[in-house]
Structures are given as structure tokens and as C-alpha cells.
Write a structure and sequence with these properties.
The chain is an alpha/beta fold. It has a domain of about 200 residues: 3-Layer(aba) Sandwich (Rossmann fold), CATH 3.40.50. Helices cover about 35% and strands about 20% of the residues. α1 packs across α6 and α3 packs parallel to α4. The protein starts with a strand and ends with a helix.
Length: about 300
């Protein structure tokens, strides 16, 4: 069962539903709160399950229905002034529903590398303590704790900490639009390291974690790229034959760039993916963004 059947969820289901000769390999279920998606899901050989993570009573039918669960749904956006804004109520509701009958054999939760906060460009392994600096990242930490607590009841749960997802066939999945706008990036001295994963490689990592993930294990679903953000945009510009973006200081960025972009420029880290390759035995189809942007 896929909870959160968006772009990555659809890539996972495409991998699951067919074998080498076109036969359906497994039955794939997708939780959806929108009945209008029924035709689309059936066309993808996916069985829709109607339920809303924000309405716990609607999730009771999920109990015992699937042997493996992939949880890709993001936490809810809290209302202004919500004193519980750091809680992921959706993950809590999902796991409560799953506990009503026999637990699935495995569950994979898609988290974010943002749980680490700013690591000042250091290499980060999965054993590093979390230090979330945003309410969004705090909700992810809460979800991780909920998932790991469920593991004490016998659920084999794995967590993928995911960086920036990209793919040429994903909406907003490349820097092209930003390059065409001429949006500035930080000068090298002020710049931050970013991490990436191609959406197709992420889908494969999700599947491998469902079958090969170790109990209560965390994995960095990241590729081998080691680039600062500005260098990533320079590389993309060169590949697309576009002008490289202008460079500005961090002080200039505070006044010239929107807060949504500044938030991605405030944290710097480099994710180790050795555990991903060793435990899940994932061979990246797109080891770096160079291969991925050209795909």
C-alpha cells in the first residue's frame, strides 16, 4: 500500500505492477481522499482505497489490508498559532489504524534530511543526532519517532531521509525555470552544500527498503553528488546552454531573495550514502546530477 501516491508514489507503483513479461507482480493499493482519481489509478493497475489521513475514522479499513506499506505523505500544514505544530498527526493516525489488526511485514517512511539542521558542510551519517531548525523539520522528527516506536510492537520499519528530489520529467524537477528567470545564487564563500536524488532512483530505494530494510534502520536516500548549490546551478546552466546565474553575497540575498529560497540556503551538509548501498544494495542509475539532468 502506498500512502501518498504523488510523483514518487506513481514511479514506485509502475515498478511494482509489472514483471518482465508484463504480468502484474503484486497487487498495489493507493490511499486517496479524492474519488475523482479512481479512473487514473485503475489505469495504472492500482487499486484505490478511500481514506483521509486528516480523518482518522476513515482509515479503519486499512487495518490488515497490506503486507507492506510505503508512507510518502507529508505532515499536515498547521494552522497559525497551533501549539501542536511540531506534531505529525497524519503518521500517528495511520499507525493507529494499522495496529487494529495484524501489522504489515514492513513499513518505510519517507522523511527528509532537513531533520539535521545546519551541519556547516560536514559529512553526515545516519547516526548523527537530529537538530531541526524549522517547524516542518520538527514534524518530520516527530513522525520518525512515531514510526520507530511502532517498531517496538514488532513492525519492521525503515526510514529514508531524503534530500532534494529532481528529474527532468518531474514538475519543477530541474533548475531550468530558475535559470531562465536569472535568479541569483550565493557566492562561493557563502554557499552551502546541497544533496540530491533522482526521482527514479528514489523509487527504487523505496522498494528495496520495503524488502531489504533492516528493522528500525535509517538510510540516506542520496546520490554521490558533492556540489555546493551555486555549482549545481552552474552545471545545469552549462548542460542546458543557458547563462550561469549571478552570484551575490549572503547579505545581498537577505534583501533580494524570497524567504522560501533563503530557507534552503541556511543549511549545509553532505550526506553519506554508504549504508544505502551496503544494506539495500542499491546501484544508482544516476550517480550524480550530471547523469540525471541529461536523462
Amino acid at each position: 500500500m502506498i500512502v501518498g501516491h504523488g510523483d514518487v508514489g506513481q514511479r514506485v507503483s509502475r515498478l511494482l505492477v509489472t514483471s518482465g513479461r508484463g504480468r502484474q507482480a503484486v497487487q498495489v493499493l493507493a490511499l486517496s481522499r479524492n474519488p475523482e482519481r479512481a479512473e487514473q489509478l485503475h489505469a495504472q493497475a492500482v487499486r484505490p482505497l478511500w481514506g483521509d489521513l486528516d480523518d482518522p475514522d476513515s482509515l479503519r479499513r486499512l487495518a490488515g489490508i497490506a503486507t507492506r506499506v510505503l508512507h510518502l505523505a507529508p505532515p499536515p500544514a498547521p494552522a497559525a498559532g497551533d501549539e501542536h505544530r511540531w506534531l505529525d498527526t497524519r503518521t500517528t493516525a495511520l499507525l493507529r489504524a494499522l495496529r487494529l489488526r495484524s501489522l504489515p511485514r514492513s513499513l518505510v517512511y519517507a522523511s527528509t534530511s532537513g531533520v539535521y539542521g545546519d551541519c556547516q558542510g560536514q559529512w553526515v551519517s545516519e547516526t548523527r543526532s537530529v537538530a531541526p531548525t524549522t517547524a516542518r523539520a520538527q514534524r518530520r522528527v516527530n513522525a520518525e519517532l512515531t514510526v520507530r516506536f511502532a517498531g517496538r510492537s514488532g513492525l519492521r520499519a525503515s526510514i529514508l531521509r531524503i534530500p532534494g528530489i529532481y528529474a527532468p520529467d518531474r514538475e519543477g524537477g530541474t533548475p531550468r525555470t530558475r535559470l531562465l528567470r536569472g535568479t541569483a545564487v550565493l557566492q562561493s564563500a557563502d554557499d552551502v552544500y546541497t544533496n540530491h536524488i533522482h526521482a527514479d532512483d528514489l523509487a527504487r530505494a523505496c522498494l528495496l527498503a520495503l524488502w531489504r530494510g533492516k528493522p528500525q534502520r535509517i538510510y540516506h536516500a542520496s546520490d554521490d553528488t558533492q556540489l555546493k548549490m551555486g555549482d549545481y546551478f552552474d552545471l545545469a546552466a552549462d548542460l542546458y546552454g543557458l547563462a550561469r546565474p549571478p552570484r551575490i553575497s549572503r547579505e545581498q540575498a537577505q534583501t533580494e531573495l524570497p524567504a522560501s529560497l533563503l530557507s534552503f540556503m541556511s543549511e549545509s551538509r553532505r550526506l553519506s550514502n554508504q549504508r544505502l548501498k551496503r544494506d539495500l544494495r542499491l546501484r544508482l542509475r544516476y550517480p550524480t546530477v550530471t547523469e540525471g539532468l541529461q536523462s
